[in-house]
Amino acid sequence: MRELTMRLIHFRKGQCGVGLIEVLIAVLVLSIGFLGIAALQAKALSNNNSAMARTQATIASYSILDAMRADRANALAGDYDTTVTYSASSTSNDGNVTAASCSTSTSLSGLADAQVQAWCAGGGSGAPNGLAALGDGATGTIVCDSNGVCTITVTFDDGKATGGEATQAVVTEAGI
Length: 176
What we know:
single chain, 176 residues, alpha+beta, two-stranded antiparallel ribbon, 22% strand, elongated
C-alpha cells in the first residue's frame, strides 16, 4: 500500500503545472481562428455593400419609371429615350473643384429633361438617390417602345464585390 502511495506521489511530481509550450500552441490556434473570423466578417461586409448597390440600382430604375408614368404621353413619344451618365465632383491637384454633373446621349427637352436630370443627380437633401447613389460613372439607359414597354438599364461599378464582374448592370423592364 505504501509503495502504491509513493508511486502516486512520484507521478504527481512529474505533472506540475502547465508547460509554456501548451499555452503558446493554444494562443496560436486561437489567433488563427480569430483571423479567420475577421476575414469572414470583411467578406460579409463587402458582399453586403454589393447587395446594397444592386438594391439602389433597382430603386433608381423604378424611380424613373414612376416619373415616366406621370408623363406617359412624352414617354411613349420617345422623349425619355437616352443614356445618362453621372460624374461625381472631384478636386484636382491645384485645388480646382469640378462639380458633379450628368450628361445625356441625346438632347432632351421640357419635363423629360428635368426628370432625367433629377433622376441622375439624385436631387433633394440628405443621402443621394438615383444614379448619384451609385457613384461616379453610374449610367442609366432608357428605351421605350410605342406599346409602353420600357427597359431601364442601370450600370455601375461594383469593384469591391467578391468575385464576379467589376461592372454590374440591373435591367428592369416594365410597362408604363
